[in-house]
Amino acid sequence: MYPNRKTCLQMMDHYDMLPNIKDHSILVADLAIIIGCELNKTGSELDLDLIEAAALLHDITKTESLKTGEDHSKSGGKLLRALGYQRIAAIVEQHVLPDKIEENVSEEEVVCYADKRTLHDKIVTLNERFEYLLERYGKDEKSIVFVNETRLKLLIIEKRIIDNSTFSEFNINNIIV
Predict the structure, then answer these.
(1) Of the options 1.10.287, 1.20.144, 1.10.3210, 1.10.3470, the CATH number for the domain spanning 5-172
(2) What's the whole-model pTM score?
(3) 125, pLDDT greater than 90
């Protein structure tokens, strides 16, 4: 059993999520649900309740992390584990970059992909998002390599989503939430 949308929104407020981060998380969840539904139409068996809760809570500790400098995916996972949400925690810990690419598109990949397609409060292409990430975080060689490696993995995930859903290369980049 996962927290529903109302409970997730209450958790966002309880943990003082900044309004812009909350708006971003809601859009990520809406996009992730659309993607999950399209994958399920063609035979995937993704848990849409899990996707929604994990997407809503993927940045649950980001506000605090902006102050402390800690890795918000790790601190978010730790918080959610402490609250008893083990499966959501595992997805939150991988929303920056999944540990591995599964045989079938996983809930982790859907949430990560939806997050990377959402820049603040707008849905953008992967190229637009990664141009932003390079501009914002590409301050040294290590960061640039990480962003570029992440881009390559996300392009693989995107292709797998297209290949296993009703999306085409055109309409996946024109999703409206």
Answers:
(1) 1.10.3210
(2) 0.94
(3) yes
